[in-house]
User: What shape does this take?
Amino acid sequence: MLKCQTAGLLAKMEVISPFSCPTCRLLFWVEARKRLSKTKNAPGSKLGVNPTSIDTVVVGTGSEVKMKPGQQLHVVNQLYPYTVQFKEDPTGSHGGSKRPRESASEDRENQREAQKTKAAKQTEKVSVPVSHGDATNTSEGVGHWSQGLKTSMQDPKMQVYKDDKVVVIKDKYPKARYHWLVLPWQSIPSLKALREEHCDLVKHMQQVADQMVEQCPDASSLRFRTGYHAIPSMSHVHLHVISQDFDSPCLKNKKHWNSFTTDYFIESHDLFQMLEANGRVTVKEGASELLKLPLRCHVCRKDIPTIPALKEHLKSHFPR
Ligand code: AMP
Ligand code: ZN
Assistant: This one.
C-alpha cells in the first residue's frame, strides 16, 4: 500500500492562452500549462487554502491518506489531477490483458504512448513515496493502453474545451470528420460505476456535447450523434460526439463501424434516462455480438459487402 503524504501542494495557473481547433476552426480557451507548481511535501501538513483530494474525497488539513494504485490525486479543487505512478513494479508484470477490439495498429500506437507516458511520469516532479509490502500493480494499471484517455485529457494539445466538471478532447483515432470525447474530471472508471448521484454530471456532459455540435461550422450539413459504447475499451467514462459521415482513415473494420451504427452505441439521452430511473446503467446481454453484424449503410440501410465498398458508398451520401 502506498502512503501518501502529499498535502501541501501549491499550484497556480499560468497564462490562459487561446487554442485554435484546426478541424473546427473555432477558438477555444484552454490553459497553456496546468502545473506550475512548487511543491513542498510536509508530512501531515497542508500549506495554503486549496483543498487536496483523492478521487474527489477531500484530504483534510493535517490528515494522511493511503492511496491505492490508479487513484487520482487532485490539488486545487480537483482541477489538477495527478495519477500515482509506482517507481518500482513489485510484480515485474507489464500487463497481460487483451484489448477486446480496435485495430492492432491502434493498439501499438497506444502501447508506444503508454511506454512514453510511463517513462515521463517517472521523472515527474510530484512523486509519492512507495512503501514495499502490499503494493499491487493490476494488469490494467497506470501505463496500460486502456488508461490512455487519462493521459490525453490532461494534454493541452488534445483539449478543445474545459470547465470545472468536464474536459473535451479530440479523439486520437477519429472515426469521422468530427469526433470528440467528453470526459468528467471526476474519476469514474466505467459505465458500471455510474450511480444516481452522477445524473447531473451526465446531463452536463450531454449539454457540453450539444454545445460542441452547435459550434461546429459544418453543423448545418452534417448530422451528429452523441453516445456511449456499450462495452468501452478505454477506461474513464467518455461520451462520444461524432459526425455521421464516418469519413476517416481511422475507421478500418467492421467492429469500428458497428460500434457506432448499431445499438452498441447507446444514445446519451437514453443512458441518462436509465440512470435517472434505475440509479445505474445496465448493458443488454450479448452487446458484443452486435459488433459482428453484417455491414449496412446507416443512411439508406443497404447491405455492403466490405469496408472499402462501404467507404466508396458513403461518398455518395457525404460528398466533400
Ligand atoms: P471506447 O472505449 O470504445 O468507447 O472508445 C475509445 C475511443 O478513444 C476510441 O474512439 C479511440 O479512437 C479513442 N482513443 C484511444 N486511445 C486514445 C488516446 N490515447 N487519446 C484519445 N483518444 C483515444
Ligand atoms: Zn447508403
Notes: Residues 90 and 317 are 54 Å apart (CA to CA). The first strand starts at residue 2 and ends at 4. Residues 104-122 form the longest helix (19 residues). DSSP finds six helices and 16 strands in the chain.
